[in-house]
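Q: Start with the shorter request: fold the first protein.
A: Done. Sequence, then structure:
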Amino acid sequence: MSQTPGQATPKRKRLRNTRRTEREGVNALRAFLEDQDCVVQEVDTANDFGKDLLVDLTKNHEITGETIAIQVKSGKSFSQRGHWGIPASSADLHTWYESSTPIYGVIFDPAEREFHWINLSSYVHEHMDALQDHKNLGKQKSQSGIRFKGHFVSTPEKQTLTQESWENFAGEVRGYIHRFGGRTLLDLMSEDMSAQISAVHDCFALGRGDARALLLLRHTITKLSNYALAQALHVLSHCASNPDIPWNERNWIPQNITWQVNASFNWSPEEILHMIRQVEETGSAGVSAWERGGYGQSLVVLIWDSPDLCERLHSALLTACRGYDDNVAFRTLILYQYFLGIRRPDVDLKERVESLVKSNPILAEHAVSSGLLSTIDDFGWADIF
């Protein structure tokens, strides 16, 4: 239909100014992923709620079943003060948190042809609360409604996706999918030491955003042995008053989580004895144990506020004298006299220790039993380390 001279031009829908840039990012990333033999499915724009691509990883040209969603951004508008990232509304943060599929964010820099990436699911599940809590340390802040407050989510510096870094990225994805599904925590019960250690580390990662992971670690403490137990002591000591942890944004645990976990440190004599025995074994293998900064310090920090600690250590000591080797029994004695001297100044410590040594041959025959008694006689007590 011809337009009558002087007639106003009708209003029509217009393309967004950013559409070409957005498509450039999606197309470039899709091509890159397909070059890595990934199966890429683009989400229809009508159904795009923060997931632009669904990606299946492959291995040796086989579908592995490892699937992630990717939110793609493109252009210099996603760089603030030299940091690439994604502006996240409260709704975005909720979506990432509640998604049953891990979500990654990728920002395409058209000028440098680079992909900057971040694991958005890991951010909201494992890091966000800890980062915010650490950032506001010492400041007055209200806890209500702060968790999903919108903000700019920066990608880690120099974390780019390239041909050279692809294997590292794919390995991170596979590891996170394993952790994200909760299967990794089952390895706390594994008979394989390396699997147990990996599960302990994942409990720390997940526990920074969800106290249940650290509570699970605490309540399976007697199922862990040797180095896995030692690592668990170090992880859990982040929820106690450990004076020698160099705190930073990467290891900070929010106070609301530390309070929940610390409240569970009501250790039984059996748990205490198990922990002492495993630390003693790592020490005999040449690992830093009963010294400042060692795993023994982590154990001491964990049991410090345990109720009725002297009575529980005494019970653990009697059990150790009946069924454990002399080093475990003697180490338990050292811990017992140390805490008894602190908690019960009314007790004659030398007399109590002498009585225990005389009535338990395993203690009396230990190489340094006389040295312990001399130290107590000279100084009133003996240090743990």
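Q: Next, the second protein, separately.
A: Sequence, then structure:
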Amino acid sequence: MTGADIPVTGAGTVLRLTGELGDGDRTAVGGKAVGLAALLRAGATVPDTWVVPVGAEPAADDLARLAAVAPRWAVRSSATVEDGAALSYAGMFRSELDVPADDLATAIAAVRDSARSGRVTAYRERTASGPMLDVGMAVLLQPFRTPVRSGLWLGRGPGRGRLEWVRGSGDALVSGAVTPAWEEWTPEGPAGGSEPEPLESGGVPVGSACVAVQNALGVPADLEFALLDSGLVWLQFRPMTTELGESPGPAAETDGTDEKDGKGGKDGKHAKVVHGIAASAGAATARALRLRDVDDPRWEPGAVLLAEQTDPDWVPLMAEAAALVTAEGGMLCHAAIVARELGVPCVTGVGAAALERLAAGGPVAVDGSAGTVAIL
């Protein structure tokens, strides 16, 4: 069965997602839909999902039927180039959450328009290894439910991976607006983390559930999940596009510890070396430049970009930066994933005070593999 054979609603402009979709349907339903179908085949629980295929215009009676299913919706991108084995396009396209049913048509149009954004152009120019393929945009529609916790998993190999999560919606986690709680997992089980006990759902560690899903998929997996009152649901799967570096361990994942003169502290005010999370491997030495927004005219290509956090609109600057350092964020936020794909060294979660110290204007040495930034 192909995407064209899947039962439809109304005039046939909206398809109900099933596990029958495969990668051959990518040109019609996009990469995110293909990943959700793979999760269904692996026995994972995913939200009820409908797909507006590439080029289809949802009919009014289709949208009216969906409005009867749920009053509020998540409207997510599913671009043809998204969530592939080589490139993730993490955060490049728009998604709209908690959309009233009456506004579905507007939200669908906004998600489609994001395929032509400047950040997508910059990402493609930096990462393209062959002909630039056209971007087709399908759209996923899912009833919206507010999660208790939201999280991400990135696999390192069989039984191994990194789990990060936040309370409530996952927007803050993937955007890098907060530094998340985290766990490291090995085939023997949890191997360190920021919290006293592993995150659980129904008495089962979420990390072990991630390992089970990854094993069923058969590849190191990039997974997004939500913990609802009703239990654990899976929101996204894509293959790992870059190797995730090893965690430097909990001792290094603190704000501003000074290894050179012993005068630093967690506020980072006196640190010569500050520590964060090793988000993207590599090293770079250049002038540090702190920006408040993407339109700051002080930006200089080749500088180390310092920011409280970044969103996908920062990609053109990230592509020009020698390295990226953020006050917030983890190893699995969009900035970290995109930095790895761009080949830009990145350290996240150094803390606001340490970022202020780094922004004095002199050169800094960023080690994205160790998660350190040294003031020179």
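Q: Describe the second briefly.
A: The longest helix spans residues 26-41. The chain has a mean pLDDT of 84.
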